[in-house]
């Protein structure tokens, strides 16, 4: 595997996607990486630049076990309050499969720094090198504050914010943000007085007789990509 050394958003995005595949985050659907086939689907769906075919096979049970161990390690690393500890951990991840940066021309003929991983390294080690490189780029360019917990009170997800503005709040905005907006809308609707002085929650007056149950909640945000 070879990737741009300067593209820290790539590794940081893979770190975010991987740490949020666990049952700790996906409470309604449970563990996402349930078998090697699910791991293969994860690599494709989240555009992880590690092709199991390059390893000579699809993901194996051993690959799955090692990736799950990497996920646990990554979660603990992201939760650390110590910037120095995160740097040390990220450096260790990079060293597992990286053979060092090299200066090469890109498709447009421009010189770029690339990181190359050992083609014989296991899948988890190649993922570790990619993630570690991304985290180091974030810490150097954007600082430790960009590693955050999801702002949703009902989510235990984490993410690395590589956005330009740095104002990301949710691990999966299309899911967590939309759910929170819907919950807030329902709370406001239940507490808003009806013309006769009652509220929908009271179940009396013009809003009674099943009105609340028969109305659909409007779409207040981007549709959920997948259930949790």
Give the SSE map:
Layout: E1 2-4, H1 8-19, H2 36-45, H3 61-78, H4 83-95, E2 98-105, E3 111-117, H5 123-141, E4 147-149, E5 158-160, H6 173-191, H7 211-214
Antiparallel strand pairs: 1-3, 2-3, 4-5
The dominant shape is globular
Mean of residue pLDDT values: 82
- The count of strands amounts to 5
The H-and-E topology, N to C, reads as: EHHHHEEHEEHH
Based on helices, strands and strand pairing, what is the structural class?
Answer: alpha+beta
Q: Are there runs of 5+ residues with pLDDT below 50, and where? A: 199-228
How much helix, percentage-wise, in residues? 40-55%
CA gyration radius, whole angstroms? 22 Å
User: Into which percentage range does the β-strand content fall?
Assistant: 5-15%
Largest sheet strand order: 1-3-2
Number of helices: 7
Please report the distance between the alpha carbons of the first and last residues. 31 Å
Q: Largest sheet, described in full?
A: 3 strands, antiparallel
Task: Describe this entry's structure for a reader.
The chain has seven helices and five strands. With 228 residues, it is of the alpha+beta class. Strands 1-3-2 form a three-stranded antiparallel β-sheet. It has a two-stranded antiparallel ribbon with strand order 4-5. A hairpin with an 8-residue loop joins strand 4 and strand 5. It is globular, with a radius of gyration of 22 Å. The C terminus is likely disordered.
